[in-house]
Amino acid sequence: MRPVLSSQRVCVMLSVGAVIVALLGGCSTKTQRLYRRAEAFFAQEQYELAAREYSRIVQEAPRDPLADDAWYKLAYLYREELDNPSAALIVYRDLADSYEDSNYADEALFWIVYLQRWHMQNPAAAAATCRELDQRFPDKKNLRGQASLEAAGAHLDSGQLQQAYELCRQIIDDFADRPRIAAWALLMSAEITDKIGDDRQQAVALYEQVVEKYPDTQAAVTARQWLGLLWHDEKTEADKARLEQQRQQARVLDNVPPIEQYADQPAMELLSAIHSLLRQAGGQISMDEVVVISGLPFTLTFAVQRPELAQAFYRNPATAIAEEVGFGYNLWTSATPAGLLDNATSCLLQDRPLLIAYGEGSARWCLITGYRPAEKELYLLQPGADHAVKLDSQAFLEVWQTSKVPALWPQGALSGFRFALTARRRPADMAATIKSVVLQSSLAWKQRELMRQPAGSAACDELVRLLRKALDARNTASREQLKSWASAAIPLIISSRQVATRFFAQPPQGLLDEEDAPYQEVSQRYAEIVAAWQELSRQIEQAPAGTEPSPTEPERPASAQHWQQALEQAQKLARMEAETLRWLASSLAE
């Protein structure tokens, strides 16, 4: 804080000096002529010449009425214009001591305090001069208050914080009737409290007190600025800490196997994503094993309007597979961005990718393999991609929140579904796992509903029922529905049965007794099921479309025969699916 007194006082002094000379009138003395010369040089900003003339006045006529005025102006020139504070201090001291009755004696003492602070950096001397000013000029309260503030500032500048703080509190008490002075003292005590650093909140409270108690002062303006800086500093420190934390939380995994792409088969892409999770976690398991463990080859759901449910699961495949092969897991379903980012951070720091459904409109199963919070970047591994792509996290979250999550099992994936593996709890026993899955699937086949649609034996019954309706050429809607369903659903059914064919050709050791249930027979049975579904697909494809015949031109027997053959093939498949699963479950249970 700088003193309120300023060089504006010099302009007043110059005009006062001119008035003094004018009042003298008539003939002038040598001192008066020197004074006029000094004033002229001062006005012309020839400060060294002015200083020389002011000095001659005091040296040649120390008791002249103009001497103290010349001495005061000389001190000003040394202090402000000629950059000679040491000389200014000497002149001010002589003015205060030698001209005790001068109108400038009180201000001379103030400027001594000022120089003792800013030039000498001597708080003890500044405090002593303050006491002298108090004793000699007790009625000059404003000036005394200004000098006391300078003395407190001298302590503060020298690092004597406790002395500075105590002097500020004394100023606040002694000059309570001088708001401008008390406000500056309170402001300085706030600054000192902030510098001590023990209680930032106390410093803030003092700055706020300046604003509230002295709102119309310059100190209040400064306090508001300090409050802004403190808030900015705190925010900056918090930002730095948050940025450092974000950098520590950044993790990008480069050891995540790709997700195999299955066009229009969300169930198989989900299983491939789970397979990727298992492999990344160290699980020695094939994709065929994952598919079989999910139970997909042993289920059948018939929904003529929703052919994708031909690959529906009777349980959550992610949690079921993890449990079957001995892994722990975490599962979340809230669709909050903060929750997703927290989960991603936690999983990645444990070297685990996060499984999610992502995509505009109909979502696909993907893996979050990296997250850099500071850069706001997410790394997403999508089906069919060799490596993860980097995405802006905000843009990613906007899509993720509106993604339509595939419903592939009862009480299926809710909005915000995410899944991750944790530590392995036990080694996998593949033979025991497959036995458990087949037995559970056999029980599930007997349940007549899955995803609120006919399932298992009921699915076969519903397919046969709709084919019987299609025998009547007038049921054009049934024929069209069956054709549409067969083209979309039967390839899905075939793909899972093909997995069973491959898997049981070389099953895990100890799964089947070669004498009671030869491996080749199990594999052969599923190969026959695959062929039967292919034949059914061909027959429905070749059957006539839904064109209602006229009474005069009934449908030709050859055309109707396609639907009859399709019906018989479906009845055959119903027996094959049920008998094969029942036989396999019985063989494994022995």
Structural description of this entry:
The protein has 590 residues and is an alpha+beta fold. Among the domains are: 32-103, Tetratricopeptide repeat domain (Serine Threonine Protein Phosphatase 5, Tetratricopeptide repeat, Alpha Horseshoe), CATH 1.25.40; 252-426, Cathepsin B, Chain A (Alpha-Beta Complex), CATH 3.90.70; 435-546 and 556-589. 63% of the residues lie in helices and 7% in strands. It has helices at 8-24, 30-43, 47-60, 67-81, 85-98, 105-118, 123-136, 141-157, 161-174, 179-196, 200-213, 218-249, 266-280, 287-294, 317-324, 337-349, 393-402, 430-446, 457-470, 476-505, 519-542, 557-589; strands at residues 251-252, 327-332, 354-358, 364-372, 377-381, 389-392, 418-424, 449-450, 453-454. Strands 1, 2, 3, 4, 5, 6 and 7 form a seven-stranded antiparallel beta sheet that branches. Strands 8-9 form a two-stranded antiparallel sheet. Helix 4 (67-81) runs antiparallel to helix 5 (85-98), helix 8 packs antiparallel against helix 9 (161-174) and helix 21 (519-542) packs antiparallel against helix 22.
Task: Describe the structure concisely.
Helix content is 63%, strand content 7%.
Cα radius of gyration in angstroms: 48 Å
Helix content: 55-70%
Q: Percent of residues in beta strands?
A: 5-15%
Protein structure class: alpha+beta
CATH topology of the domain at 252-426: Cathepsin B, Chain A
Biggest sheet statistics: 7 strands, antiparallel
Span of the ends, CA to CA? 96 Å
